[in-house]
Amino acid sequence: MNDVEAYELEMSKMGRAIPGESLTSDPENPAPYEKSPQFTNVHEATVYLWDSITEPEQYQAYMIGMSKGVPVMSIVQVILFDEFQQGSWNPDLMLMLAEPLAYMLIALAERLDIDIKIDNEEEEGDVFGVEMEEERLKKIRESARDSGLVPAGIITEEMAAEMETLPSVSLLEKPEDAEAVQEQPSLMAQPEGQ
For a tag on the chain, would you pick the N or C end, based on fewer CB atoms within 10 A? Predict the structure, then answer.
């Protein structure tokens, strides 16, 4: 087997779609992202995202994640791509929502005085495999550094008012029953008596 054949064999094992495979899906039962998107307007989609990220469970999970060093842009990508797969928006709108969602998360983290990380420096502004303009990424980094400089229009008056009602206690405090959890033996510990 020559080098070209070996290369083609390895490439065929990579789990990529077969050319024309999308034409074989059932038109009567399309995937959610193959239908018309739920949102086509940036403003409506940002309001939906705000409502989603401020739900108590989601809010707490995102804030704890950012406090533990998860980059804001990683959270943004996960949220937006998940919603794309559910049919909330098309890929173009998904890319347009990256910056507003990042600022929303920064504003929420700033309210709790969480030191955040915007992105992985080695990825150099890569969002969804698309190079994000360095100037826009620089603005987001500066906003996080300068504490609370979210551009006008991203956080509406209604969002700001709702932000005041969100829990302000530190999400990083140990729960009251943390001692009881620590007393339980580890599943990986050697059994007693051996």
Answer: C
